[in-house]
Amino acid sequence: MTPADLLLRPAGPEDAEAIVAVHLASRGAAVAAGTMPPAAHSEAEVRTWLTGRLATDETWVAEADGVVVGYLRLVADWIDDLYVAPSHARQGIGSLLLDLAKQRCPHGLGLWVFEVNTPARRFYARHGLVEVEHTDGSDNEEREPDLRMEWSPA
User: Fold this and answer.
1) Which end of the chain is more exposed for a tag (fewer CB within 10 A), N or C?
2) Are 152 and 133 contacting, i.e. CB atoms less than 8 angstroms apart?
3) What single DSSP character describes residue 153?
4) Which of 70-109 are b and which e, b meaning 16 or more Cβ less than 10 Å from the residue's Cβ?
5) Per-residue confidence at 46, pLDDT binned at 50, 70, 90?
6) pLDDT per residue over 125-136, tens digit each?
7) Rounded Cα distance, 64 and 68, in Å
8) What is the pLDDT of residues 17-38, one digit of tens each?
9) In angstroms, rounded to a whole number, what is the distance separating the alpha carbons of residues 152 and 134?
């Protein structure tokens, strides 16, 4: 897949189910791979929560052939979600979404990632984010060690 094959666009309410499907599939694959802890909430709770966030947060979708294959959710200068459907992983979609986040947050941005999620940590590090804080996980719902990463423009 090339960037020309992909459409990045703001998400609308009509994208909610597709975004939830990408979220659940991506998290499920990561849990199965041992790179993310099990979800703290049921699929129904995730669906309700994420659908509600679309009304308040800046959300973008990556669409290929009319199908949502990834999404980015920003809250101010913070990446709350960046997920790509497992069937479209490693095709540059995450990189394009992260580049979009940097464009939308030109003064810098941050995110949290689970310590065990080494693929995501490597991905973000390749794209210029640095680890700035490690925690024991006592403040997240999964109670798993995590870390804060930040990107600052040169």
Assistant:
1) C
2) no
3) -
4) bbbbbeeeebbbbbbbbebeebbbbebbbebbbeebeeeb
5) very high
6) 999 999 999 999
7) 6
8) 999 999 999 999 999 999 999 9
9) 18
Alpha helix positions (H), 41-113? 43-53, 93-104
H or E, element range at 133: strand 130-135
pLDDT at position 5 is: 82
65-100 pLDDT per residue, tens? 999 999 999 999 999 999 999 999 999 999 999 999
Give the Cβ contact number of residue 47 at 10 Å. Answer: 18
Classify domain 3-151 by CATH number: 3.40.630.30
- φ/ψ bin of 14: left (φ > 0), alpha (ψ from -120 to 50), beta (otherwise): alpha
User: Which is nearest to 84 in space by CA: 13, 23, 145, 3?
Assistant: 23
Domain residue extents for the chain: 3-151
Show the CA angle centred on residue 153, arms to residues 63 and 140, nearest 5°.
65
d(CA 115, CA 135): 9
pLDDT (0 to 100) of residue 4: 65
By CB neighbour count within 10 A (0-12 exposed, 13-18 middle, 19+ buried), where does 110 fall? middle
